[in-house]
Specification:
- The structure is a single chain.
- It contains 7 helices and 35 strands.
- By secondary structure, it is an alpha+beta fold.
- The chain has 2 domains: 131 residues, no CATH class; 414 residues, Methylamine Dehydrogenase, Chain H, CATH 2.130.10.10.
- The strands form 9 sheets. It has a 5-stranded mixed sheet, with no helix packed on it. A 4-stranded antiparallel sheet has the order 4-35-34-33.
- It starts with 28 loop residues before the first helix and ends in a 12-residue tail after the last strand.
Length: 603
């Protein structure tokens, strides 16, 4: 009989050859879905042609939800050890803080968050997808490297502003800016003109303020050739200029505008015929805005030999137009206690009845500030909403054209207010509160009893006015979403409004509020009306100049040419047979051929 012996304690049991179990695959599908939804919303907002505010809020909302839900999913992802989950979040938070510190001047905090976080989460989930079956150690190290590389890349680039559709212009951090080239090529100042220089006086055909002689984007007394193949606009001069969204004005053969020159916010006077700089005035100030772009926003205003300018940081100057010498200066922030707006002070001064009026946006009754034009002493203040990028607008209402019936209109996030120019007394209001929304489009008088208001949130609203011995009354005649202008002013011609519905040009019937046509993708440009011919001159966002017929029948493009390069948000100007265009990089003058007797188009 065979005895079976049990193995002794000292005798090892034969080991099995089975491999150690692999860790479970990391779950990534929820993270992939979150990232995919974000990029779908981001792309749809770019392609759909939504209004700027809708695009902004859609993208901001998608980014906020991704920022909230992605870490929540990650913290509850049990296929990853808790230690690794917390470590990854720590790397993300520390990297974000370092990226903001390094990129504060190149991308800004908002830029880092809006750009960096989606790419961090996208790289994060893609790495998890690639490494989902690898060991926790490899996955941990690779994830830390991926997140760190994305944050490091934020320090290698800068954002040179955004387009009207909120597309960021990303450049390498070390790439030269157009402003650098301008500063390198800029000759020393020519110096102030002699104090005995003849006074500058307004003449027929000049363009003395924002949007023209009547500040309505309309020019009369001008007829141009419309066949630009046979008679194209002829370049007179073209040169670099410092960044600004200030438009030019033309008075007595001189061009006045603003620009940023290094750390100096400058008012510049050029010879309109040659582009030669005659004088400059500088204030040590600079608005830095990674989204909208650096530099002043307001357009100068000319009155009685003086130039009134407002900078982006709130400096209001009165200068001698002939020499550039300072008559007086005010600081809107000190005078009103107003905070610096998100995109800087953008109002252009209005000079009327011996006062200069501008927007500060302070609380209580210091929304609009008026100063005596000759001395700079305060004249009156008036309450408005705190947020606006509009300028005071002078109109004649009530059927009487004397100065007693002229009113100053101003649109803010609280609605439209009409004031007496001399006293600041409120004539009437149209309440349309939308706290926090920016409004930037100039209101316009359709006739002595009607006003047209436009903004992205309101669309177009036509108001009907009446006046008796005691008071004004205002009521809404119609409201329409046929045109939703963001910051692109419209032109009115013979019962129709022509302007931008987001980035597409369109025509709206002012009797009914219905759209007649919508066509012409010119980006977020600007328009002026040559009223004697019924012509619309449009500057596109990319620097093209387009000539359109002002007709409700159809979109009819007559001609176009590339005038300047770069993002163009500034208003065009036509004066004395010349077209003046500028943006934050270039300024140019083109001579327009005069229409012969048979070719002038009149409607």
């Amino acid at each position: 009989m065979q005895t079976i012996q049990s193995p002794s304690a000292a005798e090892p049991v034969a080991a099995t050859n089975r491999p150690a179990p692999k860790p479970p695959a990391t779950r990534v599908v929820p993270g992939l879905v979150l990232v995919a939804i974000f990029w779908a919303v981001h792309t749809a907002a770019a392609l759909a042609g939504w209004p700027i505010s809708s695009t902004f809020f859609a993208r901001a909302g998608a980014c906020a939800l991704l920022t909230l839900l992605f870490p929540l999913w990650w913290l509850t992802n049990r296929s990853v050890r808790m230690r690794d989950r917390l470590l990854a979040l720590a790397v993300m938070i520390v990297g974000c803080g370092l990226a903001i510190a390094v990129s504060r001047q190149t991308l800004g905090t908002i830029g880092v968050l809006f750009m960096g976080l989606p790419f961090v989460f996208t790289g994060w989930v893609l790495w998890l997808l690639v490494s989902r079956k690898w060991s926790p150690g490899v996955q941990r190290v690779g994830l830390a490297i991926t997140v760190s590389l994305v944050w490091c890349s934020m320090g290698l680039v800068r954002m040179d502003g955004i387009t009207g559709d909120l597309q960021a212009n990303i450049q390498w951090r070390w790439a030269p800016r157009p402003e650098d080239a301008y500063l390198a090529s800029r000759s020393p100042d020519a110096g102030l003109q002699s104090a005995t220089e003849r006074p500058i006086e307004l003449a027929a055909g000049d363009w003395p303020a924002l949007r023209g002689p009547a500040s309505d984007g309309r020019m009369r007394g001008v007829k141009i050739a419309t066949d630009w193949k046979a008679s194209p606009p002829q370049l007179v001069w073209r040169q670099r200029i410092g960044p600004a969204w200030s438009s030019p004005i033309i008075v007595s053969g001189r061009l006045f505008t603003q620009e940023q020159v290094g750390d100096m916010e400058s008012v510049v006077c050029l010879d309109a015929a040659t582009g030669k700089r005659l004088w400059t005035h500088g204030d040590k100030a600079r608005l830095r805005d990674a989204q909208g772009g650096d530099g002043p926003r307001g357009t100068p205003a000319f009155d009685n030999g003086r130039l009134y300018t407002q900078g982006a940081t709130g400096i209001l100057n009165c200068l001698d137009a002939a020499t550039g010498r300072v008559k007086w200066t005010r600081d809107l922030v000190k005078d009103s206690g107003a905070p610096l707006p998100m995109w800087g002070f953008s109002s252009s001064p209005l000079v009327v009845d011996g006062v200069v009026i501008t927007f500060a946006g302070a609380s209580a009754d210091k929304g609009l500030l008026a100063y005596h034009a000759d001395s700079g002493k305060p004249a009156w203040t008036a309450a408005t909403g705190p947020i606006s990028y509009c300028s005071p607008e002078l109109v004649s209402l009530g059927g009487v054209q004397d100065s007693g019936q002229r009113q100053v209109l101003f649109l803010s996030d609280q609605g439209l207010v009409a004031l007496e120019p001399r006293s600041g007394k409120v004539c009437w209001k149209f309440d349309a509160p939308k706290n926090g929304i920016w409004r930037a489009v100039q209101p316009a008088a359709i006739d002595p009893a009607s006003v047209l208001v436009g903004s992205e949130d309101l669309g177009l609203v036509r108001l009907r006015l009446a006046h008796d011995a005691n008071a004004w009354t205002v009521e809404r005649r119609w409201a329409s979403k046929a045109m939703k202008p963001g910051y692109n002013d419209f032109a009115i011609h013979e019962g129709f409004a022509y302007g931008f519905d987001s980035s597409i040009f369109c025509c709206v019937d002012l009797d009914s509020g219905k759209r007649r046509w919508k066509q012409g993708r010119y980006g977020h440009g600007q328009v002026l009306l040559l009223a004697d011919q019924g012509l619309l001159l449009v500057t596109s966002e990319t620097g093209e100049v387009v000539l359109l017929e002002a007709t409700p029948e159809a979109h009819h493009e007559l001609a176009r040419f590339q005038a300047i390069e770069g993002k163009t948000w500034n208003h065009p100007v036509v004066a004395h047979g010349c077209l003046f265009v500028r943006n934050d990089e270039e300024i140019a003058c083109y001579r327009l051929a005069v229409a012969d007797a048979s070719s002038g188009r009149k409607r």
